[in-house]
Amino acid sequence: xxxxxxxxxxxxxxxxxxxxxxxxxxxxxxxxxxxxxxxxxxxxxxxxxxxxxxxxxxxxxxxxxxxxxxxxxxxxxxxxxxxxxxxxxxxxxxxxxxxxxxxxxxxxxxxxxxxxxxxxxxxxxxxxxxxxxxxxxxxxxxxxxxxxxxxxxxxxxxxxxxxxxxxxxxxxxxxxxxxxxxxxxxxxxxxxxxxxxxxxxxxxxxxxxxxxxxxx
Length: 216
Ligand code: E4P
Prior knowledge:
By secondary structure, the chain is of the alpha/beta class.
């Protein structure tokens, strides 16, 4: 399972990279806005910092606007993936960008029918927003399961990128289902390592060592 980091913050990307946990990055307009400053420079710096794919989202709502923005964004680095909102105009843009050899990530996906359209249009990735579904008392993971099954049924090559992750169990469940990628907030990456029994176990080993041999 690939780990993308869901952030536009360079410090978080660098820290996650040090742990070897960055196969790629996803940004969105909210995350770039949160960083402030010149978003173009920020996006370019992220593309430089990361070897893997970096999703940068278009703002336009027509296929022509999206394609125009995509042509600008791909100049930021060879690893740019164009994030396209789940709209029928977006599907038009995805199809044309695929013909040009430009990778796309269809985002803000909340239903299996939307994911089916994204795959048929030729998206490289599809991003189901599971945390936001959970927040509406709908099971986000059921959506991931349905998408994985649909793609397997027909051999679509679109990768399932689990997004809107809130906690470690989202990652575990997505991995059990066999999702290709999870895009994870830095905080949740750190939470994946935590277990109170691990802390207790290490403390006990240190105590016993110190008793027998003195401070390490
Ligand atoms: C995905 O690419 C999005 O950036 C992200 O996962 C959205 O998640 P949110 O619900 O935390 O905003």
